[in-house]
Amino acid sequence: MTILSSVIMLNSKKFKSNTLKISIGLFLCVVIYYFNNLFIILGVTEKINYIFSVWVPLLFLTFAIMLTASRINEK
Q: Could you tell me the sign of the dihedral formed by the alpha carbons of 40, 45, 46, 48, in that order?
């Protein structure tokens, strides 16, 4: 979450308002929470494998962070 928040702050130079940056950060945290919760519920109800339910959100966040972190250095 720290890496994601730093990527948001470093990559959002077009947003001048700190309130807008904080709102976007909170919105993304809520989306990540519900995405993670969805996979936990799918794992508990055995719709998908437990290992799959743990690693999919982690891999998705890692991929998203790596993609956005690479764009910071391009600018």
A: negative
Among 10, 38, 5, which Cα is nearest to 23's?
A: 5
What are the residue boundaries of the structural domains of the chain, listed by start? 17-74
DSSP, residue by residue, 13-69 = TT---HHHHHHHHHHHHHHHHHHHHHHHHHHHTTSS-HHHHHHHHHHHHHHHHHHHH
pTM over 0.85: no
Q: How far is CA 11 from the centre of its chain?
A: 14
Tens of pLDDT, residues 5-19: 666 666 666 767 778
